[in-house]
Amino acid sequence: MKAVCWQGTNKVEVETVPDPKIINPRDAIVKITSTAICGSDLHLYDGFNPTMKPGDILGHEFMGEIVELGSAVKNKQVGDRVVVPFTISCGSCFFCQKDLWSLCDNSNPNAWMAEKLMGHSPSGLFGYSHLTGGYAGGQAEYARVPFADVGLFKIPDGLTDEQVLFFTDIFPTGYMAAENCNIQPGDTVAIWGCGPVGQFAIRSAFMLGAGRVIAIDRVPERLQMAKDGGAEVLNYESVDVGEALKEMTGGLGPDSVMDAVGMEAHGMGLEGFYDKAMQAVRMETDRPNVLRQAIVACRKGGTVSVPGVYTGFVDKMPMGAFMNKGLTMKTGQTHVHKYLHTLLDRVQNGDIDPSFVITHRLPLEQAPHGYEIFKHKKDNCIKIVLKPGQAA
């Protein structure tokens, strides 16, 4: 089969690799009909995860049709059309039973790696390095899905791929991030980052009762999409974001703030230079410029939500502001399974059409081009869907 393989920093190639096979009775093989490039994939593309190996198949947002089932999977059928949550979950451990699906204790065969770094391991993830299991990803023609009786979500008739593809990650990620904001009716929410997750977070915040959403970015097409979703927008290259937020909230600050950027935030001035320099010499693994800003900007007693991905260690955090302002922080990889039925209802009720975020549709063979335009924000690119089997 054809698959998008990581070959080193800033290099991916579409290669012919062996087809996946059933290796456990709870496995399924899915023929992929749609997949996508995620902002989190860029962290791997940019070389920030040391546990990647040349030839690793990328991708954790994918869906398709079941073509083979393990003998223990009794609740799905060959031919079912399914989406695949990016978090791999067993369904029966302590954490899965508490709806904390991304913390599954049984799905990361390389848990020892994560434990050395974090103390405990999160769940396995598709296509996201050997730190989270070394599972082959879904930017391919086929994928093996472990724990398929739990992990595969059957799609009702009448919905297109593009309406449901983002159930795999960015829609529930944006929704959980908004839920983590503890939004009360009429609240003001400030969101740093208007990439795909930020766009879903904006719309989710309104669905959960926010009165105002203020979105912060620098890319014109992203800011316009945020405005189209009802947000007020700030270009951080044009204004002092902290001062602007004070002015827009009468000095109080936003009720909740969200870092939808994560470890590769673009800092300004000396702070930005400091983070890049520290990261370059491995004295800091992530660039937390946005997280610092969000903590300082949030009103007293407010909530900091962090869907942006961080992988290691950060420096110069304003813990004094965090503690003395009595803030609450909520974060984590998304518990995708928890939100699937809720989000399906939202789509079927007409509350949202998730396809709004798509700007590019490419054949799988053009994935290297897709990574480049997505990374460098060329051609007004916000979200790319890849179509295996489509002619280049």
UniProtKB/TrEMBL annotation:
Keyword Oxidoreductase: yes
The Alcohol dehydrogenase-like N-terminal domain, residue ranges: 25-157
UniProt cross-references to InterPro entries, sorted A to Z: ADH-like_C (IPR013149), ADH-like_N (IPR013154), ADH_Zn_CS (IPR002328), GroES-like_sf (IPR011032), NAD(P)-bd_dom_sf (IPR036291)
Annotated Pfam families: ADH_N (PF08240), ADH_zinc_N (PF00107)
Domain Alcohol dehydrogenase-like C-terminal: start-end pairs: 196-263
Cofactor names: Zn(2+)
Keyword Zinc attached: yes
Swiss-Prot/TrEMBL keywords: Metal-binding, Oxidoreductase, Zinc
GO molecular function: oxidoreductase activity; zinc ion binding
Similarity comment text for this entry: Belongs to the zinc-containing alcohol dehydrogenase family.
Protein name in the entry: Glutathione-dependent formaldehyde dehydrogenase
